[in-house]
Design a protein that fits this description.
This protein has about 180 residues and is mostly helical. It has one domain (about 5-175). It has 6 helices and 3 strands. A 3-stranded mixed sheet has the order 1-3-2, with helices on one face. It is globular and about 55 Å long. The two termini are about 15 Å apart. This is DUF2268 domain-containing protein. It comes from Neomoorella thermoacetica.
Length: about 180
C-alpha cells in the first residue's frame, strides 16, 4: 500500500477528476463565513451541488443532500455523512471534506468489499491482531469504522491530487489537510 493517501487511488474515473477540477476552479471556500456574502455562499452551494449530482451519476448513486453548518456538527465537527437521510453535513465549504463524505455515501450505497468476515484480516496488521486479542467482541465494528475511514481518506485525497496537484501541494503546505 502506498505510504501517502494521495497515491492510494491512482485510477479514479476521469469524469470524477474533471468534475473535481471544475469544483476547485469554482473556489467554493469563498462562500465560507468571513470570506464572502450571500451571493458567494449561494455560488459555493450551487458548485458543490453540481459536483454531487455529476459524481453521483458517474457512480450510480442517489444524490446526497448537502447541509452546511447544521446542528449535527456538534457531534461531528469535521463533517459527516448521515445514511439515514442520505445527507452530507459540512461545517464549511471544503472540496476535500466534500469528497471524503461523498466516499462515505458511496460506501453505504454500494456496500464495497472493504467489509470482511469474523476473524483477522491480513490488511489490518498488528493493530487488528492486538484489537482482536484484547476485545474480540468489539473488533468487527471498530475495524469496519477504521477501514471505511482509511478508504475515504485515501479516495478523497487521491482525487484532489489527481484533479489539481498544485492545489493539493498548497493545501499540504498550509496545513489545511488533516491527512495527506
Amino acid at each position: 500500500m502506498p505510504s501517502t493517501y494521495k497515491d492510494r487511488f491512482p485510477n479514479i474515473d476521469r469524469r470524477t477528476v474533471e468534475a473535481t477540477r471544475r469544483l476547485i476552479a469554482a473556489r467554493p471556500w469563498r462562500g465560507n463565513p468571513g470570506r464572502g456574502g450571500r451571493a458567494e455562499f449561494e455560488a459555493a452551494y450551487a458548485a458543490c451541488r453540481a459536483w454531487l449530482e455529476e459524481v453521483s451519476t458517474v457512480y450510480g448513486l442517489r444524490v446526497p443532500a448537502l447541509k452546511i453548518g447544521s446542528l449535527i456538527l456538534i457531534k461531528h465537527p469535521y463533517g459527516c455523512y448521515d445514511p439515514t437521510d442520505n445527507t452530507i453535513h459540512l461545517p464549511k465549504f471544503s472540496v476535500t471534506t466534500l469528497a471524503h463524505e461523498f466516499r462515505h455515501a458511496w460506501q453505504f450505497q454500494k456496500k464495497p468489499l472493504i467489509r470482511h468476515d469474523e476473524g483477522i484480516n491480513h490488511r489490518e496488521g498488528l493493530v487488528g491482531l492486538l484489537l482482536y486479542l484484547v476485545d474480540p467482541e468489539h473488533y468487527q465494528p471498530i475495524m469496519m469504522k477504521w477501514l471505511t475511514e482509511e478508504d475515504a481518506r485515501g479516495w478523497s485525497v487521491s482525487l484532489i491530487y489527481l484533479a489539481d496537484p498544485a492545489f493539493y501541494r498548497r493545501a499540504v503546505e498550509r496545513r489545511l489537510l488533516l491527512y495527506w
